[in-house]
Amino acid sequence: MQWFACYLTTGKHMGFYVSFGTVLLLLAITAPTALAFGFAAAGAARSAIAPLRWIGKTYIAIVRGVPDIAFFLFFVIALDQAFEWMRHKVKCADWDQPIRQGNDFVVCAAAKLPLGNSPQWMHETYGFFLAVLTFSIVFGAFAGNVLFGAMRAVPHAQLETAAAYGMSRRQVFWRILVPQMWVFALPGLSNLWMVLIKATPLLFLLGVEDIVYWARELGGAKTPRFTDYPHDDWRMWYFLALLIFYLAFTRVSEVVLTRLMTRLTHGQATTGGEAQRKAAT
Amino acid sequence: MKSLILGTAALALSASVAFAASHSVVRLGTEGAYPPYNFINDAGEVDGFERVLGDELCKRAELTCEWVTNDWDSIIPNLVSGNYDAIIAGMSITPEREEVVAFTQNYTPPSPSSYVGATADVDIDNGVIAAQTGTIQAAHIANTGATLLEFPNPDEIVAAVVSGEADAGLADKDFLIPAVEESGGAMVFVGEDIPLGGGIGMAFRQSDPELREKFDAAIQSMKDDGTLNKMIAEYLGEDSPAF
Fold first, then answer.
1. What confidence score (pLDDT) does residue A117 get?
2. Residue A225 to residue B83, Cβ atoms within 8 A
3. Best residue in B17, B19, B83 to probe A by mutation, most A CBs within 10 Å?
């Protein structure tokens, strides 16, 4: 008992506990950002302006088509290099060496992101920010597709009626389309949310130490030479803890999403909304 | 003439200032999952042979160093992309890797790799052999008649051998010695040791020769005064080959 109390409070385990917070924080930031990306993409994809429409549709099609893991391995480094390249062009205009030297990507010291001599937490925060951005871009494309479908599911007659009452395109979009589309989008979005929860182990590919990394690291068999707390292969128990965490989290999400669905259905011209109306009378 | 000299001096000065600025902190990338070379200790910090070695090298080269852990799979891409300045992660010097990165001289002699199995009579020529992805051992198995079973980190090789998922595993002997000793007979060495690779070295970007030379000189000084051999004996075991 004493042994376990000490074992579970080592610095390594603290890292494990903190990583739960990292994952939750990532989800809390990524979900709204991805939704914003998706909303913009869906809006662009049904825009009346052709170039905007092409951009929206291309973004949705390309990102959905590329395998996640390839995207994560390639994209984070590409994104990082793109930022540094831009800073390099601005800050070190008189730099005369090539940026690509063989396999190497070399920018001037002032353009490094974060600066080479900044403390480790800055590097970690930056890595986390890149992770959020990458997740948002990937999941934004899926959300965009869901929202695009949801926008088309809103009865067209309603939009025409609104136009007939003299509303502008913008007014029709914001006052008629957007409030009504959520009920059609929610099932698809809730699926995405569940997938996003389970996609967080990809974080370690981005250098962010997440719960799966720590579970693997802590659970692996430890010999007395390298630790004060030797044990056998305990990965099963650590992953069991993760399983419970993920299941609990999924359950909570389901409850919240069901409530949200009930609220959104209220007063809608759908079978769900109709059922609510009948039950109330 | 005078202005030329001044100009050259100014250029040299600005170059050295730029160098100092870009390397005021040298970031050392490691895997943190390869005892005794590098691992995460109970306090959650990088520890092991390479931690001690790296800190000593930085002291000798008069550099401030910082440790960073990175997944083995993406350890080279992140180096060439500039996310850290050096790899010190039990990485053997091989011609394939030298095409992408620049190595210092080796800081361990070419060390043997060994097979481990549940019993001494497993078939290492035709069986299923576990190794870590992207290592010289994995490349070696691919060239034999055996079936290669790849794992992202070395702990899982040991787990796969113990559980019977793989007939045998192939890894650096220095990594396997403690694992076999502590397994309580669940795992034994199989067959002869095989020498692979050209020893372990630190890897740098090819565009960064100044920094590589500093570490190269520091490694040379540790070889010359015998501290490296002492360190190898202390952390990798008395039987591990020394210089």
1. 66
2. no
3. B83
Percent of chain A with pLDDT over 90: 31
Contact A260, A186 (CB under 8 A): yes
Provide CB contacts within 8 A for A183, sequence distance 6+.
Answer: A261, A264, A265, A268, A270, A272, A273
**For chain B, domain boundaries:** 16-109+199-236, 112-195
Interval B86-113: pLDDT, tens: 999 989 898 888 889 999 999 988 878 8
Q: Is A254 within 8 Å of chain B by CB?
A: no
Q: Do the chains contact at A112 and B82, CB–CB below 8 Å?
A: yes
pTM tops 0.80, yes or no: no
Give me the CATH number covering residue A207. 1.10.3720.10
Cβ within 8 Å of B, A 191-220: 204-205, 207, 209, 216-217, 220
Q: Confirm if B100 and B76 have CB atoms less than 8 A apart.
A: yes
Nearest to A143 by CA among A96, A191, A109, A110: A191
- Give the CATH superfamily of B16-109+199-236: Periplasmic binding protein-like II (3.40.190.10)
SS3 letters across B101-142 = CEECCCCECCCEEEEEECCCCCCCCCCEEEEECCCHHHHHHH
* CA-angle at A134, arms to A128 and A136, nearest 5°: 100
Residue A225: other Cβ atoms inside 10 A: 14
- CB within 8 Å: B69 and A227: no
Q: Which chain A residues contact residue B69 at CB under 8 A?
A: 209
Question: Could you give the CA distance from residue B127 to residue B191 in angstroms, rounded to a whole number?
Answer: 13
CB proximity list for B135: less than 8 A, separation 6 or greater: B92, B171
How many angstroms separate the first and last alpha carbons of chain A? 60
Position B23 confidence tier, pLDDT thresholds 50, 70, 90: low
Nearest to B153 by CA among B32, B27, B29: B32
Q: What is the pLDDT of residues A7-30, one digit of tens each?
A: 777 778 888 888 888 889 989 999
Exposed / middle / buried, residue A147 (Cβ in 10 Å: 0-12, 13-18, 19+): buried
Q: Select from 3.40.190.10, 3.10.129.10, 3.30.565.10, 3.40.50.11480 the CATH code of B112-195.
A: 3.40.190.10
